[in-house]
Specification:
By secondary structure, this protein is α/β, with parallel strands linked by helices. It has one domain: Rossmann fold (3-Layer(aba) Sandwich). The chain has 6 helices and 9 strands. The strands form 2 sheets. Strands 3-2-1-4-5-9-8 form a 7-stranded mixed beta sheet, sandwiched between helices. It is globular and about 40 Å long. The relative contact order is 0.16. One of its GO terms (biological process) is methylation. This is SAM-dependent methyltransferase. GO terms for molecular function: methyltransferase activity. Keywords: Methyltransferase, Transferase.
């Protein structure tokens, strides 16, 4: 999926890189791209850097601190933004902050790729996603699976296109917005 929607060359800004395993995998699989991992959490950034040191290619940069709600972001330009499994495990204000921040760093036509579970038309796409949503909310009431229509409306308000949506394994979606 990423091979199809990301540019062949340039800088990919990954938001909320977590442990760094995605960053290592994708930077190897997409050698024409420079991969910039980020995370708000210092221990996550340390994990990303450990993975990068042990297994990452030269195109994988050291992780930087990035809180989507804080401006300016530490990376001021990117050719693509990728965000995997963040918006459902963060407070609701992080979603519009992510979209607005991505609109600042991306050029016209560039992709913003979101991956994770979503409700579609306000409805969970599976019973397992409904159970996961309940579990998330028990951990933190501000967490939860977001409604794709709401995210698309926020994205449009930030200057992004109608999303391309692709069903993925485990009841997840890849959602690709293009900067208008």
């Amino acid at each position: 999926m990423l091979q199809r929607v990301l540019p062949a060359r340039g800088l990919v800004l990954e938001i909320a890189s977590g442990t760094g395993e995605h960053a290592v995998f994708f930077s190897r699989a997409l050698p024409g791209l420079t991969w910039q991992p980020t995370d708000v959490d210092a221990s996550a950034r340390a994990s990303v850097d450990a993975w990068a040191e042990a297994e990452g290619p030269e195109t994988l940069r050291p992780a930087v601190a990035l809180d989507v709600t804080a401006r300016p972001w530490p990376v001021d330009a990117a050719d693509a933004v990728v965000c995997i499994n963040m918006i459902h495990i963060s407070p609701p204000e992080c979603t519009p902050a992510l979209l607005q921040g991505a609109a600042v760093v991306l050029p016209r036509g560039a992709p913003l790729v979101l991956y994770g579970p979503f409700r579609v038309g306000g409805v969970h796409t599976s019973e397992s996603n409904a159970a996961f949503d309940n579990w998330l909310k028990a951990q933190n009431p501000s967490f939860g699976i977001r409604n794709l229509d709401d995210v698309a409306d926020m994205a449009a308000g930030a200057g992004f296109s109608t999303p391309e949506t692709v069903e993925m394994p485990a009841n997840n979606l890849t959602v690709v917005f293009r900067r208008g």
